[in-house]
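Minimal example, chain plus manganese (II) ion.
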Amino acid sequence: MKPHFMQTLGEFIVANQKDYPNASGEFSALFSAIRLAAKVIHREINKAGLADLAGLAGGDNIQGEAQRKLDVLANDTFKAALAARGVVCGIASEEEDHYILLDDGLNTDSKYIVLMDPLDGSSNIDVNVSVGTIFSVYKRRSPVGTKVTDADFYQRGNEQVAAGYVIYGSSTMMVYTTGQGVNGFTFDPTLGVFSLSHPDMKTPELGQIYSVNEGNYVHFPDGVKRYIKYCQVEDAATSRPYTSRYIGSLVSDIHRNLIYGGIFLYPSSSPYPEGKLRLLYECNPIAFLVEQAGGRAISGSGQRIMDIQPESLHERVPFFAGSRRMIEDLEVCLDEFGGKG
Ligand code: AHG
Ligand code: MN
Ligand code: MN
């Protein structure tokens, strides 16, 4: 068998830089910071059970959710990697009450901000289920050289210049978009490089998987209940009943559905009237990826996720994302029976 050398993530970024006429190298540097932090998290997650990294850290984040040791470690790692390279002027994270201003000289003149969920699905970590990192990149609105402001962070999803996730699964992968399609890179731990294993990812127009925490069914809006019943009805033309698959780890659920085709639902429910997922660092980046792969992402009122004007850093939104034709069927149900609490 001939050896096969796939393009590495570093090579891919350099090769595609010509598509960005104003690229100054800052963006590539930002990506190498994310790539390096992802490698560190890959390493730590793989030894979590051995190195006393499982379990709770002892504190809560601003949303009152218990922080796990790996949430804190992932947050600190991504912050440090980004700050050390002078490539971002501000960072917002699920694990930080407020956004972080990087005005230490090294970073003041940079033009990008990053929003992130450093470790998504972290409650799964103690039982060896896949977790992820989600990131979203914007150009700042405030002038270079000044301090970042709210307006830099409260931009609509359609202003994202890049977004992606890292999935720490049976293999570690980085999947990202800069608005020119979606590409997936698999990490080879023996070489320490990410290689282009999934070029130009497209999601099927119609899938056969629906993913929702069905235990909350009684709390869902009528439109969502109707759609779930629709998924379960027999119909040869659309291959129903669909298969139900729900890991409870957003990145893993989305990654599977992106490849096989499917729909992911996190609706409003009485414990979470606005849904559970966060607009800025969970829904928007995932919506950007899903749309770039040919799918769609909408809220409970049927609004395109990336058109929503954010009002606060940690706001939540009912989130539906996946194959185009499945979202269309859902829309019919939301229109007729309602998609909000
Ligand atoms: P996080 O670990 O970043 O707080 O996110 C957990 C999220 C997400 O990964 C998943 O889709 C969702 O929680 C699952 O929620 P339920 O347990 O309510 O289904
Ligand atoms: Mn999350
Ligand atoms: Mn998280």
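The mean pLDDT is 93. The radius of gyration is 20 Å.
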